[in-house]
Every structure is written in C-alpha cells, then in structure tokens.
Amino acid sequence: MKIALIGYGKMGKMIEQIAIERGHEIVCIIDIDNQEDFETDAFKSADVAIEFTAPHVAYGNYLKAWKAGVKVVSGSTGWLEEHGDDVRRACTEEGKTLFWASNFSIGVAVFSAVNKYLAKIMNRFPSYDVKMVETHHVHKLDAPSGTAITLAEGILSELDRKKSWTKGTLLAPDGTLSGTEECAADELPISSVRRDEVPGIHSVIYDSEADCITITHDAHSRKGFALGAVLAAEYTAEHHGLLSTDDLFKF
Hints:
Distance between the termini: 26 Å
Radius of gyration: 19 Å
C-alpha cells in the first residue's frame, strides 16, 4: 500500500517506521514547510494519507487530501466541534473517506469497550458518582483530550443519570491549578493534567460512600498509537465513508 504522511513529528516518524516494517511504501511526507506537496503526483498516488497534526490545521488538511482524491486516516483532535458537521456531510453525501479516532491504540479500543460495559453495570447503582482524569505531555494543546471525550460519550450512552460532560480542573505544567470538579448532578467532570512527556493516561472513577472503583489505561509509549494508525490505514484502503475504531475493532 502507498501511504502519504501529513505531519512529521514524533508520531509521524513512528508511523513511518511501522508502516515500512509492515511492507508499505511512504510516497510523500508533508509537514509545515512543504504544503505545496499536496498538489504533487506523489501525494496523489497514495492509497491513504495518515494525518497527525494540530487542531487548527487538521480540517484544512482533510480538504486538501480529499481534493487530491486521497482517503484520510487522522488522529488529530480538537476540530470536531467546529467542523464535525462538515466532515460528516463530506463523508456521507460527497463520497469522501475519513477514518478518525481520538486514539488508535488497540489497548484503548479494549479499554473503551470495558468502559461502556462498566457504565452499563453502574447504571443500576446510583450511589456511585463518576468522574474522569486524563494526563498528557506538556505539548498537548487541547484539554480535555479527545480520547477522554470519546470515553465520556461512551459513559453517557449507558449511564442514565449523566446527561453531558464538562471540563473539570486543569493542572498546568507550571503547577497552576484552574477550574473545578464541582458540577451539576447530571454532568460528568473531566479533569486534565499536563506534565513531562506522558504519552497518555486515562482514568474513569466511580466513587461512593462505601468504596471506589477505578479503571485506567496507561500508555507506555506512542508505539501503540502508531501501530493502530497503520492498521486503520490498511482498513481504510478497502472501505469508504466516515470510519472509526468501532469498524476496525469488533468487540
């Protein structure tokens, strides 16, 4: 398979390594300083482009790739609120293809399934309140993380007493704490921590007067994310429309 990379930071380089190990060809690499390469024959020859960039440029990258006739796999977060409807329309009505996930880790896919099942169980036990905490490296711009939001939406789909998620506290790299975990009874607070080079830790906490139940996914490195992105690209090459890890991993 021919793969183009959009974004050549730590994730992009790791994806390149794993893609080559799996027998794929990297035909084009686009970063900040060579945006004109979206117009090249090399980019247009790609079966799939894998995009890991920043929230403010991700949607524009999708448009450029689609214009070149290239399907997109993306792990960029933070764009959904502003451009989600446009992307859904492009993929359902205009023949474009995007495989998007807030997290491509196989472990997170398993964790997400466990998270939804636990929420379904806890729906029967209203004495437990639920909150979330996510921890990431100091370079991450959005808070809460896209993965945390996806996990929260999984909880909301199963837990009748919660209607929406809300931002909790934010512990900044300099130790400054802002925000609050206090919220309405039907809200699920997501608190964020930014420190060091943490790849990603997500905890879901059910607390009651009697005890506390916590499930946690702790990423040791970005390798799991990169492998998942390549697996998604392999899947996307043979499928169309708006795709997700629910399509790739059938739990």
